[in-house]
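can u do me a favor
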C-alpha cells in the first residue's frame, strides 16, 4: 500500500469572523466544540487549524511544499462547504484532490451532502470522487 500522511483540519471560529458577522453563527470557537474525538485524534499525525472553509493558507501551503504532496485525499464535514472548497482549491492549484464520498457528511443533512458531491463531480471530475473501498483498491495497486 502507498504511504500516506494523515493531517486533520479543525475549524476555529473567532470573534468578528465572516461567519459571525454575516451569518450570525458563532459556534466552534472553543473547547469542547473544537476538540477532535478521541477515536480519531489518535491517528492524526498533525492538526492544522483554519479560520475559513479551506485548509489552503500559509501553514498548509508550506507543508505541501516541504512534503512534496501532489495527491490530497479529503474527507470530513461538511461536504458542501469545507470539503468542496478545499477540493476546488487543490484542483485549481494543480494538486490531485480525491474526495472520499462515504467518509464525508453534512450537518445540514444528506441532501446537502449529495448536492456537494454533485457539484464536486462537475468542478473536479467524476473520477476524483471515490468510496473508501475504491480508494483502498487504488492505494493497494499503487507502488510504494
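np, heres the sequence
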Amino acid at each position: 500500500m502507498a504511504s500516506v500522511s494523515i493531517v486533520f483540519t479543525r475549524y476555529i471560529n473567532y470573534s468578528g469572523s465572516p461567519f459571525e458577522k454575516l451569518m450570525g453563527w458563532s459556534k466552534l470557537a472553543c473547547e469542547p466544540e473544537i476538540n477532535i474525538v478521541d477515536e480519531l485524534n489518535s491517528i492524526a499525525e498533525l492538526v492544522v487549524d483554519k479560520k475559513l472553509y479551506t485548509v489552503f493558507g500559509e501553514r498548509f501551503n508550506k507543508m505541501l511544499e516541504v512534503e512534496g504532496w501532489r495527491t490530497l485525499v479529503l474527507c470530513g464535514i461538511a461536504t458542501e462547504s469545507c470539503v468542496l472548497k478545499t477540493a476546488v482549491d487543490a484542483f485549481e492549484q494543480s494538486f490531485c484532490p480525491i474526495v472520499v464520498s462515504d467518509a464525508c457528511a453534512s450537518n445540514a443533512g444528506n441532501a446537502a451532502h449529495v448536492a456537494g458531491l454533485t457539484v464536486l463531480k462537475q468542478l473536479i471530475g467524476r473520477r476524483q470522487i471515490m468510496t473508501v473501498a475504491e480508494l483502498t483498491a487504488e492505494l493497494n495497486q499503487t507502488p510504494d
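The radius of gyration is 15 Å. hope that helps!!
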